[in-house]
Amino acid sequence: MKLKIDESMMKIISLSNKIEKSTFIKNGFAIFGAGEYTRVYLLPTLESKGYIPEFIIDTYSTEDSVNGYKVYRPDILKRVSNKFILLSGQYYASMYLNNMDCDNTFISQRAISDFFVPYFEDFFSFSAIPDINDLNNAISIFDDSLSKKIFLKKIFYYLGKEIDFNDVCEDDLYFPVNLMNMIDYKVFVDCGAYIGDTFEIWLDHVKKMNNDEIEYYGFEPSNFHADLQKTIDSVDMDFKRVARKLAVGDQRKKSLFINSGEMSRVFYDHVDKHDSEVDVTTLDDFCAEYAVCPTCIKMDIEGYELNAIIGSQEVMKRYKPSLIITVYHKANDIIEIPLKIKEINPDYKFFLRHHGRNVAETVLYCV
Predict the structure, then answer these.
(1) What's residue 189's pLDDT?
(2) Which pTM was predicted?
């Protein structure tokens, strides 16, 4: 299926997004959610761009204020008018507020955390219409109609259009049933290995193979490395498995790092409040040094994927491993990452799959 993105459609969507921004600034806004995401990421980002909320709304907070902003219960919405409410929570806030009688308030249907505020130059995502040629070059890369459909949904979402992802959502993150026979999981490099949850699913898929055929290399620079090590050590099977407390990027170096649970990441944004330093390697260097011949590389590293791909070019050219790359931490990733991989090795076939009920969990599979 040959699709071409229509420039006039994009301009209309972008215009509606600008109108939404104008309403947001003119009438004032509040934030729903007083948790860690609001305190650590959302408020500093908004403040750095000159957006100052009037107050914060939270259902369960026991505090009167957060970062100097007054906290109110949700019934405040019945007493204010024409406010733009940004949802800091992904699910419960939207459901709660949509059931309230607050017709005089515009409630953003998308959680602000859908935009992954710290990663974006503009928290409304695309601050300008992306280059049409880049968009059409990217969409032409994909090898099936479902991938193209997901790509268009994501682009229109980032341009401000309300999009329902339920019709393209699949639950099998990193291990999609309809692509499994094309992905070679034997020698698995897991960048962003977390606590070993992906290791356990991977092992279930490869355990019927001969032990001398399978290898696992997990990279986790955060405080969860110890949990990863414990997980892979707990398996009573004789095969090569390695857990390294390293970040993966485009060069070997030390980098500032922020430990924040599942969102732990290499420091690369002025809003980040780093709390440690980590060693960064490249997959090109690691695989050459330790004679690793990967058949599959997975990257879910909180917005640092493009850097890691740049540091894996020789591996991709020499071995053409299957690639599993998240492309939702930055809006431009869904355009830039496929184009970069195509530039590195044009022999790949490209597929997009979406594994979340909202905008998150979009994964690029290259085989």
Answers:
(1) 98
(2) 0.74
